[in-house]
Amino acid sequence: MASAHLIGLETMLRDFSRRGTDQPGLEVPRQMQILHAAGLTDLPHPGQGATLLRWQLLAQVAAADLALVKLFEAHADAQSILHELGVDTHSDTGLWAVWAAEPPYAQVGITARTHDQVRLNGRKAWCSGAAHVDHALMTVRDEHNQPALVTLAMQQPGIRVTTDGWQAVGMAAADSVEVVFEDARAQCIGDSSVYIDRPGFWHGAAGIAACWFGAGVALARQVHQQARRDAHSLAHLGAIEAALGTAQAALRACAQWVDEHPRQDAEFEARRLRATVEAAMEAVMHHAGRALGAAPFCRDPHFARLMADLPVFLRQSHAERDLERLGQLTLEHPVERWDL
Hints:
This protein is of the alpha+beta class. It folds into three domains: 2-85, no CATH class; 96-191, Butyryl-CoA Dehydrogenase, subunit A, domain 2; 196-338, Butyryl-CoA Dehydrogenase, subunit A, domain 3, CATH 1.20.140. Helix content is 53%, strand content 16%. The chain is built from eleven helices and seven strands. The mean pLDDT is 94. InterPro entries: Acyl-CoA_dehydrogenase (IPR050741), Acyl-CoA_Oxase/DH_mid-dom (IPR006091), Acyl-CoA_Oxase/DH_mid-dom_sf (IPR046373), AcylCoA_DH/oxidase_NM_dom_sf (IPR009100). It comes from Pseudomonas cuatrocienegasensis. It holds the Pfam family Acyl-CoA_dh_M. Keywords: Oxidoreductase.
């Protein structure tokens, strides 16, 4: 089953990853619909014995296209969140998104309620794939300005998907636009603590590192295939090998930890993994560009897209702020954890 899933994805994504830069923006959501219709968006949930397989599938999609994996991972994340919370979604077929960003300039609030059925008003930012998904899992503010979590169907009169808030070049096809809600219908499934405080929150955060890793592997393969066999190129390839090896080991170790401790707080493990993989992918990009020169940036659409998209996707990390928090968590652990 696992092998068939991986092979199925590889087959369906091979030509898509090589498409030209002149292809219209609808190519990514169209490919997402194809994968969904083929049953390839149904991933094992993290912490249930197959976390590594889940991350392998995310990495494989990321290796083909990072804007596509942005939608793919969000759909899988929504399914896992709702499964973890015990929310029945069998009647809500189609593609899902997760929108949890709450910048001060874009807030959505509950303005009316009948039991768990609520009405929403406001504006939500950073809504990836908003024009193409069928349902969303979203953080909002309740009547007392406290965090809440809702699900909603996108095809209703009270929702307007704008083109505002997204001027990106890298990750352009992710279309993380702003959405306006005007008396939109939704179902409240809990306060935000059910989203943030569940063990799966950090499992999902760790899964993002698998997406970064998949893109790095795709770049490394191009260096392996195309680089000259001179001293400088081999040095770059050696540096890439060292970076990927470190990231790969960290991903495998974290996946095993998640499966062995599915109900434990995984913040430390997830933050350490993300920091490790982020640093490795920055090294891969640095060495891949220097090993291959300008040609693939200008002549290879797959390479060019990955090199434009990955720096943007990596900024889903909060850089030094995340490292600061990792340092705080490190002080809570004994130094003996570093012993071999």
